[in-house]
From TrEMBL:
<feature type="domain" description="CBM6">
    <location>
        <begin position="860"/>
        <end position="978"/>
    </location>
</feature>
<keyword id="KW-0732">Signal</keyword>
<dbReference type="InterPro" id="IPR006584">
    <property type="entry name" value="Cellulose-bd_IV"/>
</dbReference>
<dbReference type="Pfam" id="PF03422">
    <property type="entry name" value="CBM_6"/>
</dbReference>
<dbReference type="InterPro" id="IPR005084">
    <property type="entry name" value="CBM6"/>
</dbReference>
<dbReference type="InterPro" id="IPR036881">
    <property type="entry name" value="Glyco_hydro_3_C_sf"/>
</dbReference>
<dbReference type="InterPro" id="IPR044993">
    <property type="entry name" value="BXL"/>
</dbReference>
<dbReference type="InterPro" id="IPR017853">
    <property type="entry name" value="GH"/>
</dbReference>
<dbReference type="Pfam" id="PF14310">
    <property type="entry name" value="Fn3-like"/>
</dbReference>
<dbReference type="InterPro" id="IPR008999">
    <property type="entry name" value="Actin-crosslinking"/>
</dbReference>
<dbReference type="InterPro" id="IPR008979">
    <property type="entry name" value="Galactose-bd-like_sf"/>
</dbReference>
<comment type="similarity">
    <text>Belongs to the glycosyl hydrolase 3 family.</text>
</comment>
<dbReference type="GO" id="GO:0016787">
    <property type="term" value="F:hydrolase activity"/>
</dbReference>
<keyword id="KW-0378">Hydrolase</keyword>
<dbReference type="Pfam" id="PF01915">
    <property type="entry name" value="Glyco_hydro_3_C"/>
</dbReference>
<dbReference type="InterPro" id="IPR013783">
    <property type="entry name" value="Ig-like_fold"/>
</dbReference>
<dbReference type="InterPro" id="IPR001764">
    <property type="entry name" value="Glyco_hydro_3_N"/>
</dbReference>
Amino acid sequence: MSLSTKAATRAVAAVAATALTLGLCAAPARAAYDYPFRDPALPLNQRVDDLLGRLTQAEKISWLHQYQPAVDRLGIGLFKTGTEALHGVAWSTDIDNGGGVVTAEGTVFPQAVGLASTWNPDLIKKVGAAVGDEARGYHAENPRLWGLQLWAPVVNLLRDPRWGRNEEGYSEDPLLTGAISTAYGSGIQGDDPDHLRAAPVLKHFLANNNEVRRDTTSAGLRPRVLNEYDVPAFRTALRAGAATGVMTAYNLVNGRPATVTDLNSTVRTWTDRPLFNVSDAGGPNNLTGSQGYFATQAEAAAAMLKAGVESFTVNDTNAAPTVAAVNEALSRGLLTQADIDTAVRNILGVRFRLGEFDPDGGPYGKITKDVVDSPAHRALARRTAAEAAVLLKNSGKTLPLSPAKKVAVVGPLADTLYTDWYSGRLPYRVTPLEGIRARSAAAVTSEGVDRIALRSGGRYLTAGTGAGADLRLSATTAGATEQFDVFDWGQGIVTLRSVANGKYVSRANWSTLVNNQEQPTGWFVQEQFKLEAQADGTTLLRYAGYETAYDWFGPNKYVKAAADGTLGLTVAEDATRFEKETVRSGIAEAVAAAKGADAAVVVVGSMPFINGREDHDRTDLGLAEGQRALVEAVHAANPNTVVVLENSYPTTIDRLQEKVPAILWTTHAGAETGNALADLLYGDANPAGRLTQTWPKEGAALPDILDYDIVKTGATYLYSKARPLYAFGHGLSYTTFGYQGLRTTAKSGGYEVSVKVTNTGSRAGDEVVQLYTHQHASRVEQPVKQLRGFQRVSLAPGESKTVRFSLKTADLALWDVTRGRFAVEPSTHDVLVGSSSDRIHQRATLQVAGERIPARDLTTATRAADFDDYAGVELVDETKVRGDAVGASAGEWIAFKDADFRAGVTGVRLGVAASAASSVEIRLGSPTGRLAGTVPVTATGGIYSWATAGAPVTGVRGRQDVYLVFRGALRVKDVAFTR
């Protein structure tokens, strides 16, 4: 504390004492604080200004790294960003342990796609509150480990069902995604207007929906897709004040790394609250590494800060490279002190709201570790898991089951629960089998997996007991230590669980094989193998741990036993040839169990660390071949078969849909999975979850996973005209619902849509009432239908409720590329209300007044990226700071529809950049239409060296569709015709 501050403090205290003595104070004196920034009675901006003014330049710069060091002289402790909390507190990195990951053990809710499948924002707000409380509880125990900035939720749209991180997102629809993310974020934050329970950060801005080459691929977002689809998913929560920042994505967007995409002109304009934005892990180094976007880290750091990124998540706990880069940027004039102050001010805007600088820690400062895994949170997890499950099929009233009946519970997921990369540890486990056994004493079980032994030269592959041991070719008989259960995860990938200790075989520490893992796990999942049958009847054991992306072993992937029995990897030709002995047939055992039961429940699905996850997209949507064969065999043995499908994404189960009478889908839903499933299977809870993305049919053609233009490719329920296996919003119930009396009433700024919904069945249940619209006439291609609202309503048998939606006229706007803004066109709109996007029960129409989008005026400079149609081109960065352009190669084209040239034009000018000479043809009506002129383009000096190229044109008059056809590689930023 400085002398002047001490004097000021003494003066304040003296004045207060005098006032009390004279009886001049009507209220108690405020406590004296060492520094004004510690005084919670002062306005936030005043407190921030005070602390900002006390920090040195070095301290400010040090706070730009993910580990913001303590400032002991001001009594400020370490602040770390990024506790993972996607569906419960998951893990954090430990500065006191060199940045190692520490996993939480607490309440694990259903995976994010399951949370959204509840279609219940009120419930998800409660889930968010529980997660925020547990984050506070961990923080109270160890604030250096468990930070209060939570990296959740993920709001990237589930545009492509193959995305490896599908489990982390909510929906393919922006409205539903916005509603669920707002609920989750609001719950995490709490309802105090000035304080935060915890600080949610939205991931990953922007258009991050592929893992293949995720740090070098560019998501091409033309203006309509950007503004109508991707942006709303992020904007909703920020406008609602339900998030405190965004994490930038690894990918590029229109050629510019998302790490330096301008956040100041986007996300900051959606809220009046300070935002504390962060990069994704390693993102700053990608700018000079894999992306090669900047020559030096100083340039990269300057660009990030100017773009609105406050925190550099990079180099683990080592802040030195970040500090050096920022200091160099300052010395080179790439940054100013004002840039640093702006970033730190934004950081403080969130840190203050977390109560860090309040003497009592703020209103949430008294939460302790006792909240973690509390009985209330367990009950909430059970309810959420039940509400998230989706009944896909239920013919012949197969479900619910009767507790009096004997049930065979079989399948590879029947008696286990798996966690994922963003899960915490489960403090307890209620498996499907355990949940069912609690309802029916007559439950029998089989995992339905083969148990094998591998023998070569008279010796068996032998594992260890207890904690496990290195596998070796050793024993001459096949006891428990020589037997392994084989779990099939599809496309030949299996895991091997040792019978000796119940643990999975892993290539531990990149060394030999050892049976020591509770489940497949880790960033590099080393528990994956293939059993490759050979023509001579033998089998090769192939290590298949992430071989696609990380081919570190080259051809050396096959297991070879040395003379002493120890194992290593070699090429196929040199590998040990094993004789595979089937000790027990999984299908035969499951069939036997099913034959002796009144009903069979087959629990199949995915392994979250294997079947698609961060850094690995799926290449196949099918259920594992062995699991499908298991279901078919059990169904043949017992027609009263229920399939519980436990995974995190759409799955092509066409054959099972045709054969088995009942299918219930759930995500990996945490410790209460078994209880929730039993609640549903026995009718104590009535299924009401709904799918949040389209499930395509087997063999359906999907667009390139790197093509983000859902309009052009006809992707998602919005634009697809294909008939899916299950539609967006699909989900069944044990009761039935009737819809009556759809009404649309004009209101100020829009309409009220109301419909009466009645439970026409004999059971209480929830219905998710969904409102869609479709615009008839438009200048552009409109969605087949689009979700405009939804409500989950609970109804007793015979009960009716009138469900009301507010439909704003502005909600019906499209992005008008001719003027760069939203516009509502005059048109007829279908108003569709139903229980899913393909089960519409009531229809009406609205005549919506609006503005006719005028013909294009191409005589003023028009951005090339604002085209109406295209073939083959890509959207690229005009400069490294801002602006989009069109990058083209020979034969590709862009089109501007309905341009009005009136009496005609005589020339055209293009803003171009090119590394070599090329040309652009101006054609009318089509890419092969009449040639109106050819613009020669000379080399400009590079892709960011812009110049003007022009040429005369002939016959360009009246209303025309204009095509720019490219005859070489170049970039175009704008076009203008001249008279």
